[in-house]
Design goal:
binds iron/sulfur cluster; Cys_rich_dom; iron; 22 helices; four-stranded parallel beta sheet; Ferredoxin; 447 residues; repeat
């Protein structure tokens, strides 16, 4: 729930095709307009590192006002934004339809799009954003790739830090020789014909992370849905483009949106719902793509048909009822509500889902993990990312939970690293899970 306004926030299409979008004088004017409003407001002081950087910049200037701050000093403010959307979604009373028309994250995005246009985007994040190319290459050498990227490997990680700028302590997601698509092809599941939701059909949009880095989330989703009578297909036409969005590469995001929506729209026409395995990707399909390629009918159709995983299971629970057979977990769950799940404005569906497991205590953590995709693994940002996520990590630890879950697998891993810094003793035994994996465990569907 957003503070201070009764009107639901609306977002305007992003005019990335308009030459004025890249006009640096106009961008500076808008940055100064928005920063001045934020300076007078300061509600967002503790959401991330962008706002403290902005407020320090202004407070330490000659006049203590924005007029004596050089625009050249704005970049660190922009660089600290992870596009988590929390200022827009939960704090800002000045978002449209308010006349101030303030959309802080999309202004940061515009700044990066201008940098991209000028060729000032950074090489390594640009390469990391090519998730399909990277995943397709790494799956053929997964054991070697995982050996090299393991943060216990001081040799390779030291080289990666000095040559690529990836912080040597940042956990990097592993790769698998068999992707989720491979596994779904090899493992046909029998759908429970007696479940109340029998007759539903859903496409599991694998997402790049779910396909290459953590196929276990998709496998758990398939099994839970099959137990609930839902016929599924795993489909993956390509990445949603969130990592490209972080780089301000709006043309590439638009291309991905056109391609993926064209394929998924065909499934929607055949009566399938669409489930995105990762919250950031669901956010892209539901909300960002329609703003980046407005007027594309396939994108519009997909936006309305897409569910986050937990949202879909809760929908089944409410409408038809879940299939019986879940057993209590042997401990409480600390459930982190990821920013990109919260930004979908759907309620705390991950926590709602876990509370459907009998006798399970769920302790909710609502603070940002601080990860921010590829942003948080870079040498320049990792310490900040850990600092931003420390309150959430501390709350998770204090809950005394046996399980740590988040709808964002990257956020969950990052939180584990924050917990490790606070309490290194229990680090080995802690594992990050998606809530659907705990539901699969409660059904006894884990291997
Ligand atoms: S989108 Fe998130 S990281 Fe960016 S300024 Fe807003 S709260 Fe901070
Ligand atoms: S984004 Fe909105 S709520 Fe946050 S500091 Fe700026 S004006 Fe205030």
């Amino acid at each position: 729930m957003r503070e201070g306004s009764l009107d639901a926030p609306v977002r305007h299409p992003i005019n990335w095709n308009d030459p004025e979008f890249y006009d640096e004088a106009l961008l500076d004017e808008e940055l100064r307009r928005v920063f001045d409003i934020c300076h007078g407001c300061r509600r967002c002081f503790n959401l991330c590192d962008s706002f403290p950087r902005l407020f320090d910049l202004i407070d330490e200037s000659e006049s203590g006002e924005l007029d004596t701050v050089s625009s050249a000093d704005f970049k660190p403010v922009v660089d600290a934004c992870t596009l988590c959307d929390m200022c827009f979604m939960t704090k800002c009373p000045y978002v449209p339809p308010h006349e101030f028309n303030l959309d802080f994250p999309h202004l940061m995005l515009r700044y990066r799009a201008v940098e991209k246009k000028k060729g000032e985007d950074k090489f390594v994040p640009r390469q990391l954003a090519k998730t399909d190319r990277n995943g397709n290459m790494a799956k053929h050498v997964a054991p070697i790739a995982n050996w090299a990227s393991n943060r216990k490997n001081g040799l390779t990680r030291g080289i990666m830090e000095s040559t690529l700028g990836i912080h040597k302590d940042a956990a990097l997601p592993p790769y698998h020789s068999k992707t989720l698509l491979d596994r779904a092809r090899d493992n046909v599941l029998t759908v429970n014909p007696d479940a109340p939701a029998h007759g539903r059909k859903a496409v599991i949009y694998a997402t790049c992370f779910g396909n290459y880095n953590n196929p276990g989330i998709g496998e758990a989703t398939r099994k839970v849905l099959a137990r609930n009578g839902v016929e599924t297909e795993v489909v993956y036409p390509g990445c949603c483009g969130m990592p490209l969005l972080e780089q301000g590469d709006l043309k590439a995001v638009a291309d991905n949106a056109d391609k993926v929506s064209a394929e998924l729209a065909g499934w929607i026409d055949k009566g399938y719902d669409i489930i995105a395995l990762v919250s950031s990707c669901a956010l892209m399909l539901k909300f960002e793509w329609p703003l980046i390629v407005p007027g594309n009918p396939a994108v519009e159709k997909l936006s309305k048909a897409t569910y986050d995983v937990a949202e879909y299971l809760v929908d089944i629970a409410k409408k038809e009822g879940l299939a019986g057979g879940m057993q209590p977990l042997d401990g409480a769950v600390s459930m982190h509500l990821a920013c990109h799940a919260r930004a979908q404005n759907m309620g705390a569906k991950g926590a709602e889902l876990l509370r459907l497991i009998p006798e399970t205590r769920v302790a909710v953590v609502e603070r940002c993990s601080g990860h921010g995709g590829s942003w948080g693994i870079m040498k320049d940002n990792f310490e900040t990312a850990i600092k931003v996520g420390t309150p959430a990590a501390r709350t998770s630890l204090k809950s005394g939970a046996a399980y740590f879950a988040s709808e964002c697998p990257l956020a969950a891993e990052h939180l584990l690293q924050g917990m490790e810094k606070l309490d290194s003793d229990g680090a080995e035994s802690r594992k990050a899970l998606h809530p659907i994996e705990l539901v699969a465990a409660a059904y006894g569907l884990t291997d």
